[in-house]
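SEQUENCE-TO-STRUCTURE ENTRY
===========================
Question of interest: how does this chain fold, as expressed in C-alpha cells?
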Amino acid sequence: QVQLVESGGGLVQAGDSLRLSCAASGFPSSTYAMGWFRQAPGKERDLIAGISWNGATTYYSDSVEGRFTVSRDNAKNTVYLQMNSLKPEDTAVYYCARGGLYGTGRAYLLQPQEYDVWGQGTQVTVSS
C-alpha cells in the first residue's frame, strides 16, 4: 500500500540544523509531486514546502523561505527537507505528503488540497 515514512527529527538548539527524510513506497513516487507539512501544538497543519515530480520546481512558505531546502532523490524514492537556522517557532510535528501525478509549477505546489497522503510524522523540537 501507499506508505510515507519520515525520519530525522529530534531535539536541537536554536540555530542548529536538521535534515528530515521521507521514504516512499507502494507507488511510483518519482512521478509525483511531494511536499512537507508541519503542525505545532494547538495549530492547524500547514504546508511549508513542495517539490515537483522532477525536482525542477520548489515552493516554500514565507515562514521557512531562505532557511529550509526541499530536495529529492528519485533513484532512492526519498524526499528530504534540510532545515537550517532553526528557531523555537519551528517546533512541530513534520509530515511528508504526496502531491499529484506529474505535479509541477509553483502555483500547483502551494495548494494544500493537492496533497492526499501523509506519513505518520516526526517530531522536531527547537529549544531557545
Notes: The first strand starts at residue 3 and ends at 7. Residues 106-109 form the longest helix (4 residues). The two ends are 40 Å apart (CA to CA). DSSP finds one helix and eleven strands in the chain.
